[in-house]
Amino acid sequence: MLELKNLEAYYGNSRALQGVNLTLETGKFLAVLGRNGVGKTTLFKAILGLMDRCGGEIALSGKRLDPLPTFKRAHAGLGYVPQGRGIIPTFTVRENLKLGTFARSGGDKHSYDDLVFEIFPVLGEFLDRQGGNLSGGQQQQLAIGRALLTNPKIILLDEPTEGIQPNIVEQIEEAIIKLNKAHGITIILVEQDIEFARRASDSFVIMEKGRVVAEGPVKNLTDNLMHKHMAV
Ligand SMILES: Nc1ncnc2c1ncn2[C@@H]1O[C@H](COP(=O)(O)OP(=O)(O)OP(=O)(O)O)[C@@H](O)[C@H]1O
Q1: Which ipTM value was assigned to this complex?
Q2: Is any atom of ligand 1 closer than 6 Å to the C-beta of 28?
Q3: Which of 13, 40, 211 to mutate to test the pocket of ligand 1 (most atoms within 8 A of CB)?
Q4: 2-229 — its CATH code?
Q5: What is the pLDDT along the chain (232 residues), one digit of tens a residue?
Q6: Is residue 9 within 8 Å of 202, Cβ to Cβ?
Q7: CB atoms < 10 A from the CB of 201, how many?
Q8: Ligand 1 centroid to 20 CA: how many Å?
Q9: What does DSSP say about strands 14-24 and 154-158: parallel, antiparallel, or unpaired?
Q10: Which of 50, 162, 210, 214 could form a disulfide with 39 if both were Cys (CB 3.0 to 4.6 A apart)?
Q11: How far, in Å, from the CA of 43 to the mean position of ligand 1?
Q12: What residues contact 186, with CB distance under 8 A and at least 6 apart?
């Protein structure tokens, strides 16, 4: 279980997260929704230890993560697929994937090495191609593959379908759902594509101005709520 208690995060003196409380059971799928600039990416960065200043508590399976540096949070089981994918363009696909393995904890037996190429065969075909020469959709697959190679318990995905051509969007969505449903990986997804969020997730939170303003099981994610809190 992942638990956030009164999580705050600051850019300088500006408080971008205003005390977020959240509980996510192992193996579940949570969608984090909200307009641009409400703090969704900041929430991910705070969970991962990528903010300069935070307050509150983060615990994974009862173990406090908030005192730990980012690499130890990765060892504890947090995988990240950042907005914009974060592929190193001059590294090959093989080298980009290798980066994921550096974030594993030693002696970890459970490995998704084969699964990466099973769900994204194109990565196996393009192992020696530079990351920067892949299409946007292929780069997104690479970013998800790299996160999988960290052997995560939870993957945080920040707008994985943003700017991706429609034929690959479907593959990426199905892969994310499979990682959750077939492999038991807990997923937290930031997404503007509400239909994907509805289809894939068990529960949702909607953020405004650094706070959670609505939450519940996904069946309660009504059109009314969407209109009230999102630009649809
Ligand atoms: N590096 C930064 N320095 C200062 N303020 C920032 C920085 N990054 C984000 N912010 C501010 O923090 C707030 C939350 O931004 P954040 O990127 O977390 O929102 P978001 O919900 O992820 O939006 P988007 O959907 O556009 O990615 C915004 O007001 C934003 O302007």
Answers
A1: 0.95
A2: no
A3: 40
A4: 3.40.50.300
A5: 999 999 999 999 999 999 999 999 999 999 999 999 999 999 999 999 999 999 999 999 999 999 999 999 999 999 999 999 999 999 999 999 999 998 887 655 567 888 999 999 999 999 999 999 999 999 999 999 999 999 999 999 999 999 898 889 999 999 999 999 999 999 999 999 999 999 999 999 999 999 999 999 999 999 989 888 886 5
A6: no
A7: 23
A8: 15
A9: unpaired
A10: 210
A11: 10
A12: 2, 24, 25, 26, 27, 28, 29, 153, 154, 155, 180
34 lines ligand 1 (CB under 6 A): yes
Chain length of the chain:
232
Residue nearest to atom 7 of ligand 1 (CA): 11
Q: Side by side, which strands form the sheet with 63-64?
A: 14-24, 2-11, 53-60, 63-64
Structure-block tokens of residue 181: 């449903």
Q: Nearest 5°: phi and psi at 51?
A: -100, 150
